[in-house]
């Protein structure tokens, strides 16, 4: 697509959405929400649990809903225009996630799709924030080896909606065993063979699509096995190399968060203990904060520190993506104390309001490659680091799901949206 064509596409996209906003923006009718989240679960989600591990940043005043949506269109539209008020930033040509539209998937495998389709009025307006946002779909061992290629291909086609220039986002969560079971044993020979077979099929399903892949959220659990680095890390390396060989796929290996490993847990050096044998030289870079709630500013600094440490070891030109789906009201994972239904930090309490002192969860910065925008409220030094190192703020966390896993919880989805500094109101 030529630069002229891209400009025309941008103007057309903004015009269409502006018309929709004009026609539909006035719907403010209220509808009672479900009393029990169990009745709102989508029929299809079944991914394996994806748990584990900030200085609070004050909320900003939420802008008008129509203004927020218009701003999001601007963020995601194809544009080559530089804004002089922002720090100097590498061109979009250096960033595979910038300068193209981002696809949204609302097919049957999306947990929010069913409740969103069945909603109306105020509930639908609030849910649209999650449902219509471009975000990563998780793929893992719950999809059999024989089905993963077709399932991936179907997802890519639906998210691109006929436009091959559209970026699709995926999270690969395939390691078996994982989390605490991974601390007790290595994968068997059969599990290793299945992982490689599944991964090769997953790669074929992506094909030549423009894709961002977050590889193995909470990847540092690979270090949990006896003796530390072992077969799980080798398998992640195989996946990083296989996926990075695709023509238009950017691979980001997930390495925890700014508060995991914390400095007292080894910090950046502990990250490298996993990252160096996990195939980082083949990947585009690293992903952060997938299942935690750390502040975006802290994640930018952690990402810059990891990139600098890699450069010291001769591994250059690495970049960062940060999950901002869950950190509208940031807090440190290990310091969380909850009760009842929200006792565990993996299922932390959603914020009641924008002013809720927390600790609690709300939606953070919307998905965007415009990482230095003043709307995000980041300090100047952090914006400068983001301009140099960060490709995008993505949504590959899922705070609207029970234990960030399954099922979808309508009351939680509504709460994390209404209480967000950027989306609520």
Quaternary state of the chains? single chain
What integer is the average pLDDT? 83
Sheet with the most strands: spatial strand order: 1-2-3-4-5-6-7
Number of strands: 7
Question: Could you state the order of secondary-structure elements as H and E?
Answer: HHHHEHEHHEHEHEHEHEH
| Percent in strands | 5-15%
Q: What's the end-to-end separation, in Å?
A: 38 Å
Give a quick account of the main beta sheet: strands, pairing sense, barrel closure.
7 strands, parallel
Number of helices: 12
**Proportion of residues in helical segments:** 25-40%
Structural class: alpha/beta
Tertiary shape: globular
**Rg result:** 20 Å
Could you list the spans in which at least 5 consecutive residues all have pLDDT below 50?
1-89
